[in-house]
Structure formats: structure tokens, C-alpha cells
Amino acid sequence: MSPRVGMSLDMILRAAAGIADEKGLNEVTLAAVAKSLNVKPPSLYNFVNGLQGIKTELAVSGLTMLYEKMAASAEGLTGETALLALADAYINFAEANPGLYDATFQKIKDGRIENLSSLLVELVVRQLTANGYAQSDTAIHAARGLRSLLHGFAVLRKQSAFELTKSIKESRKFAVVAFLRGLQEREQ
């Protein structure tokens, strides 16, 4: 079977990401993606290796976007400003792309995913060490702590768990600054 004219991997991924963002990653199925593209599910096999192939490509796409946004956000910045920019980029990505964000946490064996995950960790570690928040032997722990803090905000926000009238962005900034100052104090 030859591919539908005009069909591409990018079209499939945009459709799958749309479903994931709107309905959740678990709602991404071959049938749902095919329906949104007005094709039959077997047509997708010309571009991806089944549902696992789609989910792998979603993870690659999500990690790539997250890395690019975080790297660009901190470019030319230093200190607390750089780390707050990284944090904002992380949260903004998670909120704008909830399905892609969820896709980045899938346990998939793929060299591209492993490489992108390493790049993200290296980016955060580099910012933490360059700005005096961690030493090389503590940087991975600091990076994990920051990621946990940000992931918690992303998940709680997605679940509408912040119902008070206080600014969530200000709460996040407060938490990140407190975390960073704790790291600084520890390093002194």
C-alpha cells in the first residue's frame, strides 16, 4: 500500500500530539490518529511502526521542544535569573503541551530519547554549577530536586489543584527561589 499523497510523519505527530494534549496520552491510538487524519489505520504504518512508533516519536518531539525552549530561555542569563528562566520554560512547555509533556516520561528504549534526556540534564547541571548552586558532585541531586519541584507544580496545575486566588506563578517563583537559596547556603 502506498502512502496517501500529502501524508507525512509530521502530520501524524501533529494529530497524535493534538489528541494527547486535548484528551490525554492514553487516548492516542492508531484508530484515533487515523480518524483525525481521515485515513484508515493501516495507512499509518507507512510512516510509523505502530502505536509504539507514534509514542516514541511523541517522546522525541516533546524532549526536543522542551530542550530547545529551556536552552533558549537561559541563553545570556546568569544566576537566579537564569534558573528562573529555565523553570518558567519548563512549566510553560508542560502547560502548553500537556500530552507531549506526559510523553516525555514514557519508558522507551531509544537512543534519541536517551540522548535528549542527557542533554536536558546536562543543561540544568551546567546552569546549577556555573551559577554557584551546586558542585560537580552535588549537581545531579540539585537537578533532580529542581525537576521534582517543577514537575509537582506542572502536575498539580494540570489537575486544577491550585484553587486559591494567589498567583500560581508567584508561588512557583517563591518555591524555586527558596530552593536555589537553600542550595547556595549548602554550598557555602
Automatic annotation (TrEMBL):
Annotated ranges, domain HTH-type transcriptional regulator MT1864/Rv1816-like C-terminal: 83-177
MF term (GO), any: DNA binding
UniProt xrefs under InterPro entries: Homeodomain-like_sf, HTH_TetR, MT1864/Rv1816-like_C, Tet_transcr_reg_TetR-rel_C_sf
HTH tetR-type domain boundaries: 12-45
Pfam families: TetR_C_33 (PF13305), TetR_N (PF00440)
Assigned keywords, A-Z: DNA-binding, Transcription, Transcription regulation
Protein name (Swiss-Prot/TrEMBL): TetR/AcrR family transcriptional regulator
Organism (species): Bacillus velezensis
